[in-house]
Amino acid sequence: MPKIVDHELQKAKVAEATWRVIQKHGIEQASVRNIAEEAGISVGSMRHYFSTQSELLSYSMKRVSERVSQRIYDTVFSGDLMQDIPSLLHEVLPTDNEKRLEMEVWFSFVVKSLSDDSLRTLRHQVDDELRSIFVTVFNGLSEGQLLLPGLDVAIEVERFYAVLDGLAIHAVMRPERVTPEVMVAVIKRHLLSLCQPDVHSMAQKPDSNAKKEQPRDT
Q1: At the topology level of CATH, where does 1-51 sit?
Q2: Is the overall model pTM greater than 0.90, yes or no?
Q3: Delimiting residues of CATH 1.10.10.60 domain(s) in the chain
Q4: Which UniProt keywords apply (predicted)?
Q5: Cα separation of 167 and 216, whole Å?
Q6: Any residues with CB less than 8 A from the CB of 138 and at least 6 apart, and which?
Q7: Roughly what angle, to the nearest 10 degrees, separates helices 53-74 and 32-39?
Q8: pLDDT for 2-33, tens place per residue?
């Protein structure tokens, strides 16, 4: 009986091998042969799934985007925007090894796309998807009447996006300095800077649901 091959599983395996090759050796070494060796499959099998290197890279980058989107989808939100927005952005930032791998691969892909027109459309698509997160953030803050009056929301969307992008780059370059705790603290500080003063007061109040210290027996 012929062996049944799960083609989507094989393609996902190849994508993950692509990420590892890029992280270890750089995108210049992400050849079909090197990725096939990393994935433990034949070059012929690779050609069956991807006819060109650009097609392989595009698929691998789509998988990165899909993983981020799935994490966001799976996040359980509390309904408190001042907690939920940092939690949302936490799923994008390189706050653990898995997310760091995704970010390093993404930055390599961005550089490659500057000289490969076939990758540019995907880069723009993923960029637009990420930017839309900040549009959603500001829509929520506006609907909740939390924003400072007179803000130019279009500019603030770009500024917040730039803050996240800058944190991600610095965290990849200097992880010992830009730690997950630092990234979360910067995001929270920036978020508060956009909000009205009474939101600051609320954010500084202790959690009313926190467990109170019980008196000691004497």
Answers
A1: Arc Repressor Mutant, subunit A (1.10.10)
A2: no
A3: 1-51
A4: DNA-binding, Repressor, Transcription, Transcription regulation
A5: 44
A6: 147, 153, 156, 157, 160
A7: 50
A8: 455 567 888 888 999 999 999 899 888 888 88
